[in-house]
Design a protein that fits this description.
The complex is a heterodimer. By secondary structure, chain A is an alpha/beta fold. Chain A is built from eleven helices and five strands, in the order αααβααβαβααβαβαα. In chain A, strands 1-2-3-5-4 form a five-stranded parallel beta sheet, with helices on both faces. Chain A is globular and about 50 Å long. In chain A, 52% of the residues are buried. Chain B is α/β, with parallel strands linked by helices. In chain B, the strands form three sheets. In chain B, strands 3-2-4-5-7-6-12 form a seven-stranded mixed beta sheet, with helices on both faces. Chain B has a five-stranded mixed beta sheet with strand order 9-11-10-13-14, sandwiched between helices. In chain B, helix 1 runs parallel beside helix 7 and helix 3 packs parallel to helix 5. The longest helix of chain B is centred in the first third of the chain and has 13 residues. Classes of the chains: A alpha/beta, B alpha/beta. At the A-B interface, helix 5 and helix 6 of A face helix 3 and helix 5 of B.
């Protein structure tokens, strides 16, 4: 188990470099399509880098390896970000990058299990991932398989009642093999999440639902890594959640400062500009 | 301020609807379907699942606070470590079943048909059907089998699930169908929605056809006849068979084709039987006239150029009344008396 993972992680590349590569690939995919959920991808890149190059066990050459940690993308529209990290991890061939969102591509705009290696579930109908994760965590326990289930969801999904059914269920069944990752970018289709259906105080909610809860800056890699380590080390028989406060469009300041919307508008000539700006911030 | 359409709607109920005969008490949800003259089998689903699970350790059972009302308690009592009580949470019930299926198990998830079809639909569609996962959704109180009114009467469940790709749909008639179905749907590599009769379930089909065995995807002739062909599913096959016996006394010869698998529909057998000519074809279903067996058969006949005289017996496109089932079955014309009466009227 260990050896296979080391072959993925065994390079000298830092997590900051991995996160930068993820951002770059996402921008390249956005450029192909001329659109995409690039704000979310740039914002979640650090969490994904820590997930795939610090936390998760997997074998790049065998995405269905029984011993892998399961990573569920409940937020199907974040697929552009997951494709980027799957390429970075060697699970998805990088040559396919230019097919993103095109006819016949294995990388549709919204992630689906039947299209893409490494995409565990069909997300996109929001509020589904955590419930499926509960079932997979129960299934792994039945099989005495020590793998973990990670469910990446958004703050918007906190408005779905099914999320809280699943939260109660995860605690009821004492699923200490379940780690929920909440991307709190405070942005959804119609505006700020906290102004749509406010989920605050969020840590108190998760704790009241019986979860071990942490809230960290999702764009601070050291904090992200420490949160993953702590979540995995909890000894109490309860599920864990990490709320990551992230910044939409992180790493491309002129987009960060734009009045952010769920589907950030990037003009045709701005993709190359964004890539050039990102290049300036390339970690050494 | 009250909208005109909402004002004092209850006033119309001051006028009694039942002008003759006795008034009966509302049929509770635990009541078994009355079936005079038939032997009954206790909890056929629960016992069939236990038998299957003893041979196949991939079988697990889940429910949303309705194990006793879906006969899953039989399984839970025998195999408590393979039973998951999910609480009153249908969305996570089916999502969890999807997750267990992803990990290689064959989950049987039970609730009432109204809750699966209405509340959990998006989760069944995306977490289960779109990925073609082998989750078996088994639901009690199909159609008009409770007197509690629309909150518990799943009169449109088949229409809802027929629209879902990959979904196999079963509307069993009796204990024989249910016991026969369980191992067959477990073997089917995909999602299944099945209606369920629970408690003391009548054994109907083998009395009329001793060698009857449920076959997934197959319609079967239970009774031959030269004047009328009833194409039916669910407990309406029982009604059809009983009505056929009554009509025989009036020299009306009625055939009954039982179609327990609603999707995929056995169009070959339906076309062969309906195409024989000379018979009035009547579909009979415990479901709204919209989107169920009747419309599926009509489409099959029309698109294949088979055009017999055709009638449908189904529930109306309405929210149905509360009350006692015998009263309601007469009111909506799915009782034996009414089925026989209507068929006679069409000849």
């Amino acid at each position: 188990m260990e050896g296979a993972v080391r072959t993925v992680r065994g390079s000298n590349m830092t997590l900051a470099q991995r996160a930068w590569n993820i951002r770059r690939k996402a921008l390249l995919m956005g450029e192909v399509q001329g659109q995409g959920y690039i704000g979310q991808a740039l914002g979640i890149a650090d969490v994904l880098a820590a997930s795939y190059f610090h936390a998760l066990e997997y074998r790049a050459e065998d995405p269905e390896w029984e011993g892998r940690d399961r990573f569920l993308l409940s937020i199907g529209h974040y697929a552009i970000a997951l494709y980027a990290v799957l390429m970075e991890a060697g699970i998805l061939p990088e040559e396919e990058l230019e097919t993103y969102g095109m006819d016949d591509s294995r990388m549709p705009m919204s992630g689906m299990a039947s299209y893409t290696p490494g995409m565990e579930i069909t997300g996109g109908s929001l509020g589904h991932g955590l419930g499926i994760a509960v079932g997979m965590a129960l299934g792994l326990k039945r099989k005495k398989n020590p793998a973990l289930v990670y469910n990446l969801m958004s703050d918007g999904e906190l408005g779905e009642g099914s999320t809280w059914e699943a939260a109660m269920s995860g605690a009821h069944h004492k699923l200490n093999n379940l780690i929920c990752l909440v991307d709190f970018n405070n942005q959804q289709a119609d505006g700020k999440s906290t102004e749509m259906l406010c989920s605050e105080p969020l840590e108190a909610k998760w704790e009241a639902f019986g979860w071990h809860c942490q809230r960290v800056d999702g764009n601070d890699l050291n904090a992200v890594v420490a949160a993953f380590d702590k979540a995995r080390a909890v000894s109490e028989p309860k599920p864990r959640v990490i709320i990551f406060d992230t910044r939409m469009c992180k790493g491309v300041p002129f987009l960060e400062s734009r009045e952010i919307t769920h589907f950030v508008r990037v003009e045709a000539d701005e993709w190359s500009k964004a890539l050039a700006v990102l290049e300036e911030g390339k970690p050494q | 301020m009250t909208l005109a359409s909402m004002a004092r709607k209850y006033e119309q109920r001051r006028v009694p609807r039942i002008t003759d005969g006795e008034r009966m008490a509302t049929s509770a949800m635990i009541a078994s379907l009355a079936a005079e003259g038939y032997d009954t089998v206790n909890a056929p689903f629960g016992h069939a699942l236990v038998d299957l699970a003893k041979k196949d350790d991939r079988i697990v059972g889940l429910t949303a606070d309705l194990s006793k009302y879906t006969d899953l308690h039989v399984f839970a009592n025998v195999m408590p470590d393979r039973f998951y009580q999910m609480g009153m949470a249908e969305q996570v019930l089916v999502s969890t079943a999807a997750g267990l299926a992803r990990e290689g198990f064959i989950p049987f998830a039970t609730t009432y048909a109204v809750f699966a079809s209405r509340r959990a639909y998006d989760f069944i569609a995306m977490a289960i059907a779109e990925e073609n996962l082998p989750v078996k959704i088994i639901c009690a109180l199909p159609g008009l089998t409770t007197g509690y009114g629309p909150s518990h009467q799943a009169t449109e469940d088949l229409a809802i699930f027929r629209g879902l790709p990959n979904m196999t749909i079963i509307d069993p008639c009796d204990a024989d169908d249910i016991a026969g179905m369980v191992p067959q749907i477990a073997t089917h590599d995909g999602p299944v929605y099945s209606r369920l009769l629970r408690g003391k379930v009548p054994s109907v089909l083998t009395r009329h056809k001793p060698d009857y065995k449920f076959q997934l995807g197959k319609a079967q002739m239970i009774r031959e006849g030269k004047d009328v062909l009833i194409i039916s599913s669910g407990f309406m096959t029982m009604r059809a068979l009983d009505a056929a016996e009554r009509l025989a006394a009036d020299n009306v010869d009625v055939a009954v084709l039982h179609v327990p698998t609603i999707k995929p529909l056995d169009t070959e057998t339906i076309l062969a039987e309906a195409g024989k000519g000379g018979r009035l074809v009547v579909t009979a279903e415990n479901h709204t006239e919209v989107g169920g067996l009747g419309e599926a058969v009509a489409r099959t006949l029309l698109t294949n150029g088979v055009a017999p005289s055709f009638r449908m017996i189904a529930l109306p496109d309405e929210f149905l009344e509360a009350g006692a089932l015998p009263t309601l079955h007469d009111m909506y014309e799915i009782s034996v008396d009414k089925v026989a009466e209507r068929i006679k009227g069409w000849l």
